[in-house]
């Protein structure tokens, strides 16, 4: 039961930390960073990054591991209970989001869905390996072909079932909607009253409640031992990407000197989603729609209001993607971009921890496996 709850929390974190395969940002000099430092200078370094290489590769922290994703492949490296590394690499269809699926706003929705599905598969593999007491003792060798399938099947028999992972994904989605839509709306309804009678006050309370719910949730789960380790893998992912972008050999020693914060982190996407949701929900006259439907019962009107806000989530996600990934990702040296990304960088102080060398090695191995399949990159 404890591990199922852990996977539920991690799946929700995955929903919050959308995969970001965007352009790289610019560069700062390489200065030594004191381990564990989360000073303002570290946030500035992350924002003013000036790496010699530009990369589209992004990543995701997993249970006892890291997943990295490029255009042509994604890979994961997971630390097993016996201390060895489980590695696996999978091809990706680089032409999957062409045509109308690449249109502005639309592409953000597809990127989110694609990220959730890929994250679901990576989390399933990682959970099976991280909680498995038996398995292959070999390390440092990526699994491919029939051998990879056999290992995955064996891990699934020893670990969690596919149904359990689907359940955790569904519950994670429900939790996200409840935490960021339903609960803030309920708090606003209790404090202010009917939405139609005090729209501005209702939206203000709703906005504050949404921000408090998010920060409180992240802070609360950050007290859990296993989630602390997850956040350390998150830091390892960022340090590894920093290291690659600065043209250094991928080693724990080189990666360790970089900050845990990164401007392309999915945390910035989630923060922007919350901000955009506040703006969209404030500008759209939901009260007129409720009146047009002829609904007068407060409970029914509240249900319709929450339903309309849920329906608008794809639009909000699309706008957030255009701002944080497409615009900010291409103008990282802009003062306006740095201002927009500042809240996301501050939230990373909660969602990233200083990793140890074994955690850095997981991120490095996942990155190296992806680089083998990427064109025009160095290994």
Description:
The chain has 379 residues and is an alpha+beta fold. The protein has one domain. Helices cover 61% and strands 6% of the residues. It contains 14 helices and 4 strands. The protein has helices at 2-16, 40-47, 106-130, 145-158, 162-192, 199-221, 225-245, 252-256, 266-283, 286-292, 298-311, 313-330, 335-351, 357-371; strands at residues 58-62, 65-69, 73-79, 85-91. Strands 1-2-3-4 form a 4-stranded antiparallel sheet. Helix 1 (2-16) packs antiparallel against helix 3. The radius of gyration is 21 Å and the shape is globular.
Give a short overview.
By secondary structure, the protein is an alpha+beta fold. It has helices at 2-16, 40-47, 106-130, 145-158, 162-192, 199-221, 225-245, 252-256, 266-283, 286-292, 298-311, 313-330, 335-351, 357-371, and strands at 58-62, 65-69, 73-79, 85-91. The chain is globular.
């Amino acid at each position: 039961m404890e591990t199922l709850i852990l996977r539920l929390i991690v799946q929700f974190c995955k929903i919050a930390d959308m995969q970001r395969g965007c352009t790289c940002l610019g560069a700062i000099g390489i200065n030594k960073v004191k381990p564990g430092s989360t000073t303002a200078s570290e946030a500035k370094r992350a924002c003013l990054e000036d790496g010699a290489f530009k990369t589209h590769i992004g990543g995701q922290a997993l249970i006892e591991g890291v997943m990295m994703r490029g255009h042509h492949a994604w890979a994961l490296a997971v630390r097993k209970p016996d201390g060895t590394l489980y590695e696996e690499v999978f091809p990706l269809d680089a032409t999957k989001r062409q045509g109308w699926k690449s249109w502005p706003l639309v592409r953000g929705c597809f990127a989110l869905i694609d990220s959730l599905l890929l994250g679901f598969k990576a989390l399933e593999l990682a959970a099976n390996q991280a909680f498995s007491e038996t398995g292959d003792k070999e390390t440092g060798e990526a699994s491919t072909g029939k051998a990879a399938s056999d290992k995955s099947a064996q891990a699934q028999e020893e670990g969690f079932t596919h149904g359990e992972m689907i359940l955790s994904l569904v519950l994670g989605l429900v939790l996200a909607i409840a935490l960021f839509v339903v609960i803030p709306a309920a708090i606003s309804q209790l404090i202010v009253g009917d939405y139609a009678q005090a729209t501005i006050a209702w939206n203000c309370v709703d906005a504050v409640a949404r921000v408090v719910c998010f920060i409180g949730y992240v802070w609360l789960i950050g007290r859990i031992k296993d989630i602390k380790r997850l956040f350390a893998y998150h830091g390892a992912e960022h340090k590894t990407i920093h290291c690659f972008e600065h043209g250094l050999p991928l080693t724990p020693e080189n990666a360790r000197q970089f900050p845990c914060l990164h401007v392309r982190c999915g945390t910035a996407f989630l923060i922007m989603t919350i901000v955009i949701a506040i703006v969209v929900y404030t500008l759209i006259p939901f009260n007129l729609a409720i009146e047009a439907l002829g609904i007068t019962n407060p409970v029914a009107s509240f249900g319709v209001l929450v339903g309309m806000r849920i329906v608008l989530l794809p639009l909000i996600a699309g706008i957030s993607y255009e701002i944080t990934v497409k615009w900010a990702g291409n103008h990282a040296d802009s003062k306006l971009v740095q201002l927009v990304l500042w809240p996301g960088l501050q939230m990373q102080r909660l969602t990233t921890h200083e990793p140890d060398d074994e955690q850095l090695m997981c991120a490095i191995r996942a990155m190296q496996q992806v680089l083998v399949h990427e064109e025009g990159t160095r290994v």
